[in-house]
Amino acid sequence: MAIPTNIKTLLSGNVVEWARIEFKETWDAEASLKTICAFANDIDNWGGGYIVIGVNEKDGRPQYPLKGVDPEKIDGYLKDMLNKCKLIQPEYLPIVEVADLDGKKFIVIWAPGGNSRPYSSPKTMVKENKERIYYIRKMSSTIMPSEAEKRDLYNLANNIPFDDRVNHEAELKDLNITLIQSYLKEVGSSLYEMSGTMDFLELCKSMNIVSTLPEYVKPKNVGLMFFSLEPERFFPYAQIDVVEFLDETGDSLREKTFKGPLHQQLREALIYIKNSVLQEEVIKVDGIPEAKRFYNYPYAAIEEALSNAVYHKGYDVREPIEVRIEEDRIIIVSHPGADRSISIEGLKEYRAYSRRYRNRRIGEFLKEMHLTEGRNTGFRKIRNALKNNGSPEPLFETDDERTFFSTTIYIHPGFLKKKDDTIIDDDVDLKPKEKELIGYINNNHNMTIAELAESMKVGTSTIDRMIRSLKEKGILDRKGSNKKKEWILFL
């Protein structure tokens, strides 16, 4: 049976986080069984993990040249693996594949999060040992849980993430072989070559997108979300609505809805926004050979924000993802809100670190297709894209009840409409840089002098001079405490 990715991808660490991969030079039954148990418990809903046998490692990274596994030992390893995995309680068997790379053999063990948590395995392989441990994974280590973590595991026992649940309303025929093969080909899985001849049910089991009970075969929600032609039949409003407001009153607008498999609707929505909304401005500056180029909204920021919305949306909530394109900003809203481990204050300060993801399986598929990363890098990637474009900082919001999450990306000041400049009295003489500064402040009244200098690519002393000039002209002031100062514009 094959795994739904390939060994090159695992060795690169670009798709599956290093914390979810363990490299072993050879089959070590005692150590590996503990790690398989920990991945099956999946305490942080990462989606389980992988063990690659035949690879030397240092600090959790593969070391080259790769050693591989002696072909004559593979059969013995697999038989021992099967016997040892039977020691895990309740019953749990990982998916194992023998992979070829550079003329060498490797054994890849895929241990997805199990449906019958918590799992335990023997503390040692000594025959007299009767002690069992509920091993868990923290960072890159397999450890014994604390009492609090044990309670957490028990709480998770009946809390299978929605995307990994069996859908009792669907049938195996609702999964589309063409969509599955297209995905397997895209991610370079060895399952692609086998999919044309192997039994369809076995193919789906290999991808962990159906229940494994022989007497009750049903698709899992994640399988329907990615490999059903009409996932909205099972998940109403599993769609992306793009709404463009063509005037300030909102009376004139243009709407477009994207449905279908999650990765397809995401890609189609991004293409639409890229072609219909995004614009580039080229400004030639005297004395400088290269023109100044910037976009109204950088594509990388929009891509990351929308991909994160698809990743973290609650698909048991009957609300679409909405992309609101207004005159001076794009707002991406999904439901429900951020996990409570992320505070509202943390969002305001761009501090959001959560390792418990709402949709672990959706994340797996999106990461395989390089549509998201899932390493708490979303905020940083959005901010870096905006910074490189010279755009204002984004705004991330949720409410106390966590009913929604929104990302606001402001337009580059260079695209603000002319009428924004004419609001200022004609008698006031403003320099171009002063107008640009006003544009940044107008979009974010809490920007610090350092942030303004960084966004405008000038020194803080230059910002200080412009601020003094604007204050003297009666256009700008600053109020509030030292920690909560806010710019006030008199336009």
Please specify the SSE layout and strand pairing:
Elements: H1 7-12, E1 21-24, H2 29-41, E2 49-53, E3 57-58, E4 61-62, H3 71-85, E5 95-101, E6 104-111, E7 121-122, E8 132-133, E9 136-138, E10 141-143, H4 147-156, H5 177-187, H6 191-195, H7 200-206, H8 221-227, E11 240-245, E12 253-258, H9 262-276, E13 280-283, E14 292-295, H10 299-312, E15 321-325, E16 329-334, H11 344-348, H12 360-368, H13 378-389, E17 395-398, E18 405-410, H14 418-422, H15 432-443, H16 449-456, H17 460-472, E19 476-479, E20 486-489
Parallel strand pairs: 1-2, 11-15
Antiparallel strand pairs: 2-6, 3-4, 5-6, 7-8, 9-10, 11-12, 13-14, 15-16, 16-18, 17-18, 19-20
Describe this entry's structure for a reader.
- This protein is of the alpha+beta class and 491 residues long.
- The protein has four domains: 1-158, Schlafen, AAA domain (Methyltransferase, Cobalt-precorrin-4 Transmethylase, Domain 2, 2-Layer Sandwich); 161-231, no CATH class; 240-413, Heat Shock Protein 90, CATH 3.30.565.60; 417-489, Winged helix-like DNA-binding domain superfamily/Winged helix DNA-binding domain (Arc Repressor Mutant, subunit A, Orthogonal Bundle), CATH 1.10.10.
- 34% of the residues lie in helices and 18% in strands.
- The chain has helices at residues 7-12, 29-41, 71-85, 147-156, 177-187, 191-195, 200-206, 221-227, 262-276, 299-312, 344-348, 360-368, 378-389, 418-422, 432-443, 449-456, 460-472, and strands at 21-24, 49-53, 57-58, 61-62, 95-101, 104-111, 121-122, 132-133, 136-138, 141-143, 240-245, 253-258, 280-283, 292-295, 321-325, 329-334, 395-398, 405-410, 476-479, 486-489.
- The strands form seven sheets. The protein has a six-stranded mixed sheet with strand order 12-11-15-16-18-17. Strands 1-2-6-5 form a four-stranded mixed sheet. It has a two-stranded antiparallel ribbon with strand order 3-4.
- Helix 16 crosses helix 17 (460-472).
- It is elongated.
- Mean pLDDT is 87; it is low at 418-423.
